[in-house]
Every structure is written in structure tokens, then in C-alpha cells.
Amino acid sequence: xxxxxxxxxxxxxxxxxxxxxxxxxxxxxxxxxxxxxxxxxxxxxxxxxxxxxxxxxxxxxxxxxxxxxxxxxxxxxxxxxxxxxxxxxxxxxxxxxxxxxxxxxxxxxxxxxxxxxx
Length: 118
What we know:
The chain is α+β, with helices and mostly antiparallel strands and about 120 residues long. The chain contains 1 helix and 7 strands. The protein has one helix at about 85-115, and strands at about 15-20, 30, 40-45, 50-55, 60-65, 70-75, 80-85. The strands form 2 sheets. A 4-stranded antiparallel sheet has the order 3-2-5-6, with no helix packed on it. The chain has a 3-stranded antiparallel sheet with strand order 4-1-7, with no helix packed on it.
């Protein structure tokens, strides 16, 4: 997904597609400020869905309030808003989950063995 005015720095292969929905009755401003050499800011109207491409480590700040007095109301890790990742990343995630399940089973077995031995 191309962004016309503010291309993501770094390698776009690392990017994720995200979606944020303004479920309030107020106009909000969505910002990402923690990515070096990149600034993202969009106005999000009530009920509007904002789709954007960013890096996995990005944090989406949601500012809401009246006319000239917007306050930071939420900060959301963009990984939680991710709606699409590449097939390679899906495989990596699956492998990570499989290995963590394996390690958890090993820990459980070790605990059972300790209980039997004592």
C-alpha cells in the first residue's frame, strides 16, 4: 500500500498493514512519532476506518478533544492493529509459536519430574 506524501523509511519489506477505527463521536488525530526520519499524522472522523502502512515497532498515538485542545488519549502498538503480514512472517510466527509451545511442554515436564523426585 503506497502512501503518497510520507513513504516509510527503511526497507518496506518489514512493513505491516494496519487498521484503526475511530469508534467515538469525536474527531481524533492519529500520529506515529517514534519512527526515526518519519512522521505520520492523520485526522480520523467519527466512525472512520484509517488504514495505513508502517513498521512493526511503531506506536499509534490517538489524540482527541475539542477544537484547539487535543489531548493524548491512547497509545496503541501497531502490531495490535496489524491486518496483513507476508507469508514469510506468518511462517516465522508459526515457528516461534511452535517452539514456545515445545519449550512450555519441556518446562511442565521438568516441574512434574521435580515433584516426583521430592
